[in-house]
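User: Here's a chain of 303 residues. Predict its fold as tokens.
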Amino acid sequence: MPQKHKSQSWSELKQAGNECFKTGQYGDATNFYNQAIKELEKSNKKNPDDLAILYSNRAASYLKDGNCGECIKDCNVSLELIPFNVKSLLRRAAAYEALERYRLAYIDYKTALQINCAIAAAQDGTNRMTKALTEADGPSWREKLPPIPTVPLSVKEKLSQATVNATQQQNGTMQPNKPAPSNKDIKKAQTLKEEGNALVKKGEHKKAIEKYGQSLKLNPAEVTTYTNRALCYLSVKQYRDAVRDCDEALTLDGRNVKALYRRAQAHHELKNLQACMGDLHCLLQEEPNNGAALKLLQEVQKQ
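Assistant: Prediction complete.
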């Protein structure tokens, strides 16, 4: 068992736990998180957010070690401290799924999708649970579900942005040491984007792709440039490139309707029908009467 040095603070213990977790030493990670929780709970600086993260981290260690019961308990505590915390929802869902408690797993996956409908783990989990529950309970399986909590809009916006920031840090798209684009770069990027738009109107999609690429080098945080280039990739049948651009757009704006629809179109062409349906369901949460999405969903369901 790792020993705590007298001078170690709860944050140092948490960091030690994180390092153990990264190297697959899940038992040691759990012990460090135990000590960190004790230190934080007895300190005068007890912060609900910090405590929630520690419980969620320990839950992840329990999950990796196959201790699903303890994982669920820690996620419950974490979610009491930060309601609708996405990581805790996904970890609890995975634990429920491992224990074959598919209805509860489905609820957690669907709740996570309300916060950010672009979370791939939640989309995949929802698809798996739908299949498992259909097999277990038949076509009326939804009638046997507990109610799905409604995530308040204010919470959605706050947590969706936090999830986007975390995703950007994981993907390396957010680089704190890299300076933000200058006003000059932003203006030049906008001009290049408009030139790309003009080329699209002429049907010159390959040339437009080049313009959008030049624009994104100057300003990689412009969502509409990604969705515009994705449209061009669809036109020239480069479907995987279209998916990648929509992924980038959804990292920046998890509820972007154009990105969801264009990624659904690309998945459809690639025969990834479950992924296509996942994107369309997310889109229809945002715009329930979107005619193009409803039409494509009908077509995919027939297939």
